[in-house]
Design a protein that fits this description.
By secondary structure, the protein is α/β, with parallel strands linked by helices. A hairpin with a 4-residue loop joins strand 2 and strand 3. The chain has a single domain, classed as Rossmann fold, CATH 3.40.50. The strands form two sheets. Strands 6-7-5-4-8-9-11-10 form an eight-stranded mixed beta sheet, with helices on both faces. Helices cover 30% and strands 25% of the residues. The protein binds S-adenosylmethionine. The site of S-adenosylmethionine has 23 residues, from helix 4, strand 5 and helix 8.
Length: 252
């Protein structure tokens, strides 16, 4: 089991975006994944950001509430529908999407942006807390362990773009129909929620595309509204009062 990296814990991203991306692109491993600790033996917590990868109170249920229902999924799915995500983490959102799409729609695309890919063994351990997701994770874990970042998972064509999203999203050629904004908490990972990046999210959203996120932080909501989304507040999952969701109204 990996525990805390004795070489020291970075609290935030390196200021140099290019070097962050290059470091992350080195591949899977302790340095690339960042030091993890396990809360209650189950929930992976990034010591880089001092934040868990998913909700301590049933991450799968929160994913369904926030990212799927928040984007009106699976109702909007159709062939060619493109989901994009900031923060791939353990792939739990990917697997929740797979479960939701099964038997409903083929030909879906899922693109995720991740600076510090986790090792397959850590992902497997994290997913073991969710038997429904773990039962479908085999092909994903095999591909991931082999170093593949583009693979097919049931109806989903998956691509995980490795590197700092501040560097990789602006050059991405795609446009998503639905965004999962799933960085660590805005207070601890503000760069993944900054107005400039939210503008890039909007620029890479198809007409009438949507976003959903668990946070209702003011600066995130303002950034998304300035970027062109009609932002609304919705009830959060579990103990969380609010989350945010929205539809693209205009592009800057
Ligand atoms: C809350 S976790 C995501 C959980 C994930 N969606 C899941 O289903 O397990 C946040 C993720 O954002 C990633 N991240 C943080 N800052 C980033 C950045 N600047 N660029 C890309 N990824 C980043 C972290 O490495 C982490 O994997």
């Amino acid at each position: 089991m990996r525990t805390q990296d004795q070489s020291g814990v970075e609290q935030n991203l390196p200021a140099d975006v290019a070097s962050a991306g290059a470091g992350a692109a080195d591949g899977v491993g302790a340095a690339a994944a960042g030091p993890l600790v396990w809360r209650d033996q189950i929930v992976p917590v990034s010591t880089r950001f001092d934040d868990p990868y998913f909700s301590l109170a049933n991450g799968l249920a929160e994913t369904r509430h926030v990212f799927l229902a928040g984007n009106d999924l699976p109702a909007r799915l159709r062939p060619g529908f493109h989901i994009a995500e900031l923060g791939f983490g353990t792939g739990l959102n990917l697997l929740a999407t797979l479960i939701a799409a099964e038997g409903i729609c083929e030909g879906l695309r899922y693109t995720s942006f991740e600076a510090w890919p986790l090792a397959a063994e850590d992902i497997a351990r994290a997913l073991s807390a969710f038997p429904e997701a773990a039962a479908r994770a085999g092909p994903f874990l095999a591909a991931w362990d082999a170093g593949l970042r583009t693979f097919t998972l049931g109806p989903l064509q998956v691509e995980v773009l490795i590197g700092d999203a501040r560097a990789t999203l602006p050059t991405w050629q795609g446009r998503a129909d639905a965004w999962y904004l799933d960085g660590f908490s805005p207070a601890k990972n503000p760069e993944l929620w900054a107005p400039d990046l939210m503008a890039e999210v909007a620029r890479h959203t198809a007409p009438e595309g949507s976003f959903a996120t668990y946070t209702a932080a003011g600066f995130v909501r303002r950034g998304l509204a300035e970027a062109g989304f009609a932002v609304s507040r919705a009830p959060g999952h579990g103990m969380k009062r609010h989350m945010s969701r929205g539809r693209l109204e205009r592009t800057r």
